[in-house]
Amino acid sequence: MDQPKRIVIVGGVAGGASAAVRARRLSEGADIVLFERGPHVSFANCGLPYHIGGAIPDRGRLLVQTPRSLMARFNLDVRVNTEVLSIDAAARTVTVRNLKTGQERVQPYDALILSPGAEPIRPAMPGIGDPRILALRNLEDMDRILAAMEGATRALVVGAGYIGLEMAEAFRARGLEVVLVEKLDQVMAAADADMATLLHGELRRNGVDLRLGVSVEGFEPGPDGLLATLSDGTRVACGLAVLAIGVRPETALARTAGLALGSTGGILVDEYMRTSDPAIWAVGDAVEVKDTVLDGPALIPLAGPANRQGRIAADAILGRASVYKGTQGTAICKVFGLALAVTGQSEKVLKRKGVAHRKIYIHPADHATYYPGASSMSLKLLFDDEGRILGAQAVGAAGVDKRIDVIATAMRGGLTVYDLEDSELCYAPPYGSAKDPVNMAGFVAANVLRGDTALWEPEELASLREDQVLLDVRTLEEFKAGTIPGAALAPVDELRDRLDELDTAKEYLVFCQVGLRGYLAGRILAQLGYKVRNLSGGYRRYRMFAGQA
Predict the structure, then answer these.
(1) Among all residues, which ones are annotated catalytic?
(2) What digits encode the pLDDT tens for the residues 337-379?
(3) pLDDT of amino acid 547
(4) Which domains, ranges and CATH numbers included, belong to the chain?
């Protein structure tokens, strides 16, 4: 095929800039023009909260490339402060306006790549137009937030997703009081409630006033600057507010050009990132992607996929056989001293979609416990009856990124929980254990599928039968420090000597601290003819379920 001579890209940052430099690497002769509405073409938007909080003190570190550097290295014609107003698909031209001079011009193309991104949701409510009510999308937003912080003593953050949590930490790092409001009963909607609850205590321990299950209904001027009215009737005084309640794909340009949109509202693209127009491609947060777990349409705005999509679009335009294989939603968020990482689907989504699944919980250390500095993590693994991995979530102070990355790679390669058992991973006492948490997750999941252990769920506690007995197999000291109400004590090391106290007509719901001793007790009792099930994740899992973690 003939290679296009004129490639026009709308929007920079992750998707657009990646497409531009990839196209140049493949074709030195192509005429590549990139239009960016803002003043910066390539910046680290994921780093914005960390400059606000002071972890990245130098603002210039956020500038990845400039129009000048892109011209020097890649011979790219980058025009910032230039908005693309419309697309004439039939004529293969775009009309653009210089936002500083107001001058308009028509730019022809042979291939067009759209990378408009997603815009923060700003709901209609009283007082929403106040300039102290901000969102965070680009460097200019960041500068406005920094300016609004001057003289402020309290900040209101609305929404507890990735940006909301990062902004809450940033404001606390700058010494501001923080009220964090979330409409759901948990932070981080991408995770399940039993895992997200581990972050609630961490937020509160670090001085964040966390308000769950409430929303903001309106703003008005107040003595401290703003007064927000919440759905529970309370009011919050603050010097500034940041809206972080989500984003929506910016599709106006595509829509007016007649491009097809998907069922999620994102721009519809094929595996080559080509839209319904054969000369137009689209990448990044504005496109509808395929969910690799459920094999359906999804909107998953993440920087990594946007970069890969930009590269694939350039490959497709310039004749390389390259396809986008979907998005599985691998992500991580730092919350003070903890991190939460996810990949694949959550349990609540699997339930909502009616997808049959199983789950296990483990609470291993990030490295060998005899080496100083080890800390525990909580890891949840979701899988089906064939061992296919459907998703995983982990929370901890260290090592969760490594484990979720390994599981995400296993999922991408079509591996199963049985393969996690066999994974050969780095081991030295400062970095891991001979049985890595990934191996342990595989062992526990495979034990369930092989029938070596049966599990019970905390939800069953609400309707225990007379023939069921809760059995705590930890030590007396652990039992006295706290147990599940109604449990009897039978330490696993004494179990074989106390079999005369047990009844084969009853079912024993055993648990320990994290699941291992419960598994061992279950193996003993099952082989001796008793009906027994273990609580995956143990007493720590129960506390997560009860919101006591």
Answers:
(1) 46
(2) 999 999 999 999 999 999 999 999 999 999 999 999 999 999 9
(3) 85
(4) 6-118+248-317 (3.50.50.60), 133-245 (3.50.50.60), 337-450 (3.50.50.60), 455-545 (3.40.250.10)
